């Protein structure tokens, strides 16, 4: 659906995307994550042809985007919906008129427009607001209108640029649930840009981490969070505070074993005590994953390591 190879993008002499390689499959919910200025929006805008790229290949729906002529680009963009942080609704138009706008521009007849807009307002839960104006709606409702509008031309892909960044956590969750429903019921691929890790954990099946235009992580979301490498830890701002005495061991629980009693079994089996330094469990994309850090005496290190090696589990000694 989207295939990017060795993509480089410059603004003037400044390289803002460096050697980007990735594939997004049909039906994926794919997150592009990074701090401010990382190049997330630029990458999203390259995908729908709003930005040019100078080197490499970017194929969307079997089209090399930079080769599209103006007329082809309009047809191409018809199949890509987009939503934004600040909703981009027209204040003087009603909810119905806002949603209808793309179809009017493309010259659909009134009865087709009415049916489509009514169906979409039903899908996003706003049938009773069709005559309201944007200023009469909450932030979450405005984003629902924007989502309905983005779906009017039956896109294959929905691009979301920080669509939940202006919303409170509960409203964010309700919008993410709506996006999941759209992904599942309409089989629309969703590519979302966000700086919020919670958004990634709640919705994305795969995520790309960008830093200064470089890919520093690209994986299935659970795997990115389950055992983050040094770059990812730095990115997440997870500085590990651990005791300076003894040996600190971090044990990762993948999705299928988060509830197993590995730690207590180990204590019983080896007949040793150890301190639990810290640990956490969290829900990522409906799976529970987690990790725990234990502190043991130096003399117990070999015993514990030998035990852990017999288990099908990831672990590391923290330096
Ligand atoms: N039109 C432009 N002209 C020149 N430089 C630009 C332009 N747009 C973005 N940039 C620069 O490109 C880099 C990437 O910007 P981009 O907006 O893609 O980052 P981002 O990760 O989306 O950040 P944010 O989360 O703050 O929106 C930044 O250094 C930015 O200053």
TrEMBL record:
A single Gene Ontology CC term: plasma membrane
Superkingdom to which the source organism belongs: Bacteria
InterPro entries: AAA+_ATPase, ABC_transporter-like_ATP-bd, ABC_transporter-like_CS, ACT-like_dom_sf, MetN_ABC, MetN_ABC_transporter-like, NIL_domain, P-loop_NTPase
Molecular function per GO: ATP binding; ATP hydrolysis activity
Keywords from the UniProt entry: Amino-acid transport, ATP-binding, Cell membrane, Membrane, Nucleotide-binding, Translocase, Transport
Record has Translocase as a keyword: yes
Keyword Translocase: yes
GO biological process, one term: amino acid transport
Domain ABC transporter: 2-237
Biological role: Part of the ABC transporter FtsEX involved in cellular division. Important for assembly or stability of the septal ring.
Family per similarity comment: Belongs to the ABC transporter superfamily.
Name the record gives this protein: Cell division ATP-binding protein FtsE
Native organism: Malaciobacter molluscorum LMG 25693
Gene name for this UniProt entry: metN
């Amino acid at each position: 659906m989207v295939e990017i190879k060795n993509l480089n993008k410059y603004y003037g002499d400044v390289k803002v995307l460096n050697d980007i390689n990735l594939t997004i499959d049909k039906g994926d919910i794919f997150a592009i994550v990074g701090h401010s200025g990382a190049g997330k929006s630029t990458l999203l805008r390259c995908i729908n042809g709003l930005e040019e790229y100078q080197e490499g290949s970017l194929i969307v729906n079997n089209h090399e985007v930079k080769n599209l002529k103006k007329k082809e680009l309009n047809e191409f963009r018809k199949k890509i919906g987009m939503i934004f942080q600040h909703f981009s609704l027209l204040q003087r138009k009603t909810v119905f008129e806002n949603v209808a706008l793309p179809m009017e521009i493309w010259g659909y007849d009134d009865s087709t427009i009415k049916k489509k807009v009514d169906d979409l307002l039903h899908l996003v839960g706003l049938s009773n607001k069709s005559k309201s104006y944007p200023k009469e709606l909450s932030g979450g409702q405005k984003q629902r209108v924007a989502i309905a509008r983005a779906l009017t031309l039956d896109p294959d892909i929905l691009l979301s640029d920080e669509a939940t960044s202006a919303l409170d956590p509960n409203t964010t969750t309700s919008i993410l649930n709506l996006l999941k429903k759209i992904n599942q019921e309409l089989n629309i691929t969703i590519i979302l840009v966000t700086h919020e890790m919670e958004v990634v954990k709640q919705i994305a099946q795969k995520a790309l981490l960008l830093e200064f235009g470089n890919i520093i992580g690209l994986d299935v979301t659970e795997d990115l969070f389950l055992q983050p490498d040094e770059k990812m830890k730095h990115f997440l701002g997870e500085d590990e505070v651990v005791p300076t005495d003894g040996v600190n061991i971090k044990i990762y629980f993948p999705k299928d074993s988060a509830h197993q009693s590995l730690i207590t079994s180990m204590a019983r089996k080896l007949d040793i005590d150890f301190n639990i330094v810290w640990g956490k469990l969290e829900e990522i994309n409906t799976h529970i994953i987690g990790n725990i850090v234990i502190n043991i005496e130096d003399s117990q290190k070999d015993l514990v390591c030998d035990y852990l090696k017999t288990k099908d589990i990831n672990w590391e000694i923290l330096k």
